[in-house]
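Chain entry —
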Amino acid sequence: MIGFVAVCAASAATYFVVDLSTRSSARRSQAIPTVLARDESPESQPTGLPVGARDDGGWPCLFGPHGDCRAAGDIDVTAWSDAGPPQVWRRPLGRGYSAPVIDRERVFLFHRRDDDEVLTALDLRTGDPLWEQPYSTKFRCRYEYSDGPYSTPRVDGDLIYSVGAEALLHCRAVEDGRLLWSRDLRADFDLQPGGYGFGAQLLVDARHVVLNVGGRRAGVVAFDKLDGRTIWTATDHAMAYTMPRLVQVQHRTFLIVLTDVGLVCLAPDSGEVLDQYPFRSKVGDSVTAVTPVVRDQRVLLVAGRGAGAVGLDVTTDGRLVEVWRERRALDSLFNTLVSFDDAVFGFTSTRQGAASLRRLEFDTGRVTWDFPSELERGQALAVNDTLVVLGEHGHLATFRIDAPEPRETWRGSAPLLAGPCYSAPSYARGLLIARNESTVVAWRLGSRRGEHTLGDYSAASHTMSMPDSSSDHVDE
């Protein structure tokens, strides 16, 4: 039996908050005043409900404004040439798999440059740097993959949270990147080194930052989002590369976390463990890296080869009830899953040399699309009724998401980014932002109906001024 521990009080820890009385800092940070999320004091939101999930033209976290990899907007693929949608800007970037996030007129990128992890803010219109905050890291991946960072930042009002490959959790001001507080999760919770770096994804709700830290002292931890104090800890589960989710069942809110052991359902205010469901890949050296999809009380789990796909219901008392299980339906390894009406779209792992884009019925697990192609293990998002896919090797393609059968509505003949492209793209205000481990690029897909757009800015002239611009479609 898996042991669980729920501690509902702050524990001794080495966390860092700027001392306003002395106006000094011990970690290369400037003192800053308390910054609250926009119009979101802790008392202004019911506990457990997500904040920052506004459909205001932003993409505040890995899965977009509503957590389903979808956004409103207009795309006219008939206006694209074979070279792809118009490029607005392109600029060099460091390494890592962290995805871009967008808030108002800023793009935030978390990447590694030499021996520094760097959080960078760019102007969404131009790609010009606004600020960056580097700090040193010594992490080296044991395998032939990136040295990180792996986790994607999370914007919450006037705050942005990030956690690097060595498990340093930072809260900064969106305006200029000044450090508000930090936690050394490795020291505080006795994290043991693994083959890959730390990469758990961040959930931010009305009061908390929640992470599957995976330490010997705690598996899941909730921090006060304004000062970094530990609020509660729960489980002894190892880390998975997933994001905690909130599930609303009638008038109750539950917190679910897919850890390296399985799915755990908790009370979001206290960390009390209500139920668990063992679930992980059957391949010994694999990691769990696909965040559950939530629709109403239904939860979809996918965890790589051998585990298959499972549909669970969360009951009104927080129990997890299996509804269906399909071992061959979907075995995504690290890819984003797009939720649309009664279906989920995602890529399988590479089997017999090919991966497929599939459509899965949410209620039954039945596969209704199966589209193998050179997109391989792509990353996808949806803009209205268009599924936009960035392939593993840098190809861009679109599909009609409500079509009964898979059919590409556009794909260029050449990749637009050099592969491999393991980071998920983001979309806001008519722009698709995508990256690999050397470049970030913005393409104009369209503009949001009735929203502020990027105007008549000349993409071509600005692209020519960028330091790594090229007449080729693929960056070298």
Notes: The mean pLDDT is 83. Residues 38 and 157 are 5 Å apart (CA to CA). The longest strand covers residues 106-113. The radius of gyration is 21 Å.
